[in-house]
Specification:
This protein is α/β, with parallel strands linked by helices and 243 residues long. It has 8 helices and 8 strands, in the order αβαβαββαβαβαββαα. It has a single domain, classed as Rossmann fold (3-Layer(aba) Sandwich), CATH 3.40.50.
C-alpha cells in the first residue's frame, strides 16, 4: 500500500499546478499622456467705432437736431457716450451730462473745443480727416456738415452720409447732391425732417422724421428722443449701421 503524501509534497504539487493552470497577470505599461502645447496668444485688432456724417441741405432744416438725436441713439446702443462734432462752438440745452460723456470729453481733450451734454460729447472740428482717427478709437461719432460745407470731402472720410432736407426743398436738389456724393463714397441716406405731409418725398426718402418739439429739445440736450421721433431715429441708425 502506497503511503500518504507528506504535507510538504502536497504543497509543492499544488504550487506547480497553480503555475501551470493560472496565467500570470501581465502588468500594462503606464502610458504617459502628451502634454498640451500652449497656444500662442493672438492679438485682437482694436475696436473701431462707426462714423456718420449728417449734411444739412438748407438753413434751419433740422440737421443739428437729427445729428444729435442720431448720436444719442448710437450712444444708447453702445452703452456709453457718443461724439457729435460740428464746425462751430456747440450750443447746449442744459439737462446735465452723464458720467460716460464726461469721461469721453476727458479722452478727447486733444480736439480742443469739447464739452459733455447729456450722453454726448460735443466737439468742434475743422478737418474731418484729423477727427476720424480719434473718434474711431474712442466712441461712435456723428459729424454735422452745414449747408454749403465740404459735404463731398466729409463723405469720403466717413462710413455713411445722411442728407437732411425739409419738405419744402426740391427733390431734384437732393438727388443731385446724392449723386455727387455717391461718386466718391457710399450712396447717402435721405432723411426728411418735420415731414408732416409726405408729398413728393414719400417714394424718395429713406426716413421721414416727424415734427416733435419735445423730442427735438431732448435731442439738442444730448438725450435719446422718445415717441415717433425716437422710432424714426432708431430706423435711421439701423440703416447707418447696416451700410
Amino acid at each position: 500500500m502506497r503511503g500518504a503524501a507528506s504535507p510538504l509534497s502536497r504543497t509543492g504539487l499544488l504550487c506547480r499546478a497553480a503555475d501551470w493552470l493560472v496565467e500570470p497577470v501581465e502588468e500594462e505599461p503606464i502610458l504617459s499622456l502628451p502634454t498640451e502645447r500652449a497656444q500662442p496668444l493672438v492679438a485682437l485688432p482694436p475696436r473701431t467705432y462707426p462714423l456718420v456724417a449728417v449734411v444739412g441741405l438748407a438753413r434751419r432744416c433740422g440737421a443739428t437736431t437729427v445729428a444729435r438725436a442720431l448720436g444719442a441713439e448710437l450712444a444708447a446702443r453702445d452703452g456709453g457716450a457718443a461724439v457729435v462734432a460740428g464746425p462751430g462752438r456747440p450750443a447746449v440745452v442744459g439737462l446735465g451730462s452723464s458720467a460716460a460723456a464726461v469721461r469721453l470729453a476727458d479722452c478727447l481733450g486733444s480736439l480742443g473745443r469739447v464739452r459733455p451734454a447729456g450722453n454726448l460729447c460735443l466737439a468742434g472740428y475743422s478737418d474731418v480727416a484729423a477727427l476720424a482717427p480719434v473718434t474711431r478709437r474712442a466712441a461712435p461719432a456723428v459729424v454735422e456738415v452745414e449747408p454749403g460745407g465740404p459735404a463731398v470731402e466729409v463723405a469720403a472720410a466717413v462710413d455713411q452720409t445722411v442728407l437732411v432736407v425739409s419738405p419744402e426743398l426740391s427733390p431734384a436738389l437732393a438727388a443731385a447732391v446724392a449723386e455727387t456724393i455717391a461718386a466718391v463714397a457710399s450712396p447717402p441716406l435721405l432723411a426728411v425732417n418735420r415731414a408732416a405731409d409726405h408729398g413728393p418725398w414719400l417714394m424718395r426718402a429713406d426716413v421721414l422724421v416727424p415734427d416733435s418739439r419735445f423730442g427735438a429739445r431732448l435731442a439738442l440736450a444730448g438725450r435719446e428722443p422718445r415717441g415717433w421721433l425716437g422710432r424714426s431715429i432708431g430706423q435711421l441708425a439701423d440703416l447707418c449701421l447696416a451700410c
